[in-house]
Amino acid sequence: MITMTDKATEKAKALFEEKGVAGQAGLRVFVVGGGCSGYQYGMALAREFDDEDLIVEYAGIKLVVDPDSAPLLDGAEIDYVDDLMKAGFTIYNP
User: Fold this and answer.
1) Helix (H, G, I), strand (E, B), or coil: what is residue 27?
2) Rounded CA gap, 54 and 76, in Å?
């Protein structure tokens, strides 16, 4: 369903360690909106999971996706970009 690059995986693990939630939390990935500019993707630290959430473990990182976002994220890849324009997680969706 969703994959992560090595760089994104390393950054997520470092973030969880920094926050003191390694092994307990996940990375919630979601889709919002629609409208003129299309869908927007978001990510947040997930300390709690809903019963309906789809939880995919990728390289030791729990990716948490709500049931409404899941079909829209099928085949997506999470990367971590660090260049002059921005630094942060990015979602590439085919």
Assistant:
1) strand
2) 15
For the segment 11-24, what is each residue's pLDDT rounded down to a tens digit? 999 999 999 998 88
Q: How far apart are CA 67 and CA 89, in angstroms?
A: 22
Answering whether pTM is above 0.90, one says no
Which candidate, 80, 50, 46, places its Cα nearest to that of 63? 46
27-44 pLDDT tens trace: 999 998 766 777 889 999
Residue 59 three-state SS: coil
What distance in Å separates the CA atoms of residue 92 and residue 94, rounded to the nearest whole number? 7
Q: Amino acid identity, residue 67?
A: P
